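Example with several molecule types.
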Amino acid sequence: DGGITQSPKYLFRKEGQNVTLSCEQNLNHDAMYWYRQDPGQGLRLIYYSQIVNDFQKGDIAEGYSVSREKKESFPLTVTSAQKNPTAFYLCASSIGAGARDNQPQHFGDGTRLSIL
Amino acid sequence: GIQVEQSPPDLILQEGANSTLRCNFSDSVNNLQWFHQNPWGQLINLFYIPSGTKQNGRLSATTVATERYSLLYISSSQTTDSGVYFCAVGGGGGATNKLIFGTGTLLAVQP
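Resulting structure tokens for the full complex:
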């Protein structure tokens, strides 16, 4: 079945460590996105990528990094510079990312990151 | 940037009741989606509805883009409808289809 796979579902990190969250899609979508959700809040955009080898900062990019070496993969690294990394992280994809593409975003099941 | 407001913030229903959730947004948009987030955190696409009206079973949605609001109707509610309903908009005159989320409506359906 086509879809978006995020792994792991739960992740624990010691302070000062970098961790990488995986996001893979087999929908042949060009655009991919990373969002963060804090308890009782909506989602906020961290990074997005419109095409392979290109990505842009979202609203809360500080302390995060991404890469887009393959169309189907968009890993997110939470670095030690992110002071409050405990959150629920969701990955999404869409056919395109331009404003004229006018296409819905589809989401993975998320990764819960906690600090030990 | 574009602002998204959802109302009510929370809602308690008896099973079988109907409800209307509202989403107001502050700018023109190219994308509007309604999601249901279940207790396990999964975000489920309900509707992609930048304009017009759509129906899917007991759920329907209407977006009046010129007046910058969207409504989600839930009829004959069931306990499995419980969770958080999010409205998210994209476009907003910008160059990319980034989604801006509202803070959600927390729905509890009691048996």
